[in-house]
Amino acid sequence: MAASLPTVPRVTFTIVEPISLVAGFLGAVSDPAWFVAEQVPQKAPQVVTENAIVLAWQLGNLYLLMGLVGLAVLLTTSEVKVVRNYLVALWIGDIGHVAFSCYGLGRERMLNPSEWNAMAWGNIAMTVFLFSMRSAYFLGVFGPDKPAVASAKKAT
User: Fold this and answer.
1) Cross-referenced Pfam families, in alphabetical order (predicted)?
2) 65 and 29 Cβ atoms separated by less than 8 Å
3) What is the pLDDT of residues 85-127, one digit of tens each?
């Protein structure tokens, strides 16, 4: 199905997004204490508990899972309806991800992007970018989906 997507959404959803998810996975599992401490920019170092480490590993695992499921859906199905429904689910997830990230930052930090660290930019700006790309795709900004290529039936 990925071949049926217009070029910009195809590249975004099959290359850019999976790479960003793998990056999140690697950050969370390679240095979970850093990953946890960076979720909300702080001036003083934070104590990271064993519970937070396990949650970071679990979140990293979910990032990897999302990337693999996304590639599986986008690269194996020829059903436009399946892909659109998958992208709708991610679109809804984007809203929650940004809302929780903003809530975690608090009003003062949220309104001062100059104080954001790379993690805050990734959690908010990257997710807003992906949300915008999904929205633009749904609105037809990139043009229509290409027709699915009919597979030739084998002669028996």
Assistant:
1) DUF7704
2) no
3) 999 999 999 999 999 999 999 999 999 999 999 999 999 999 9
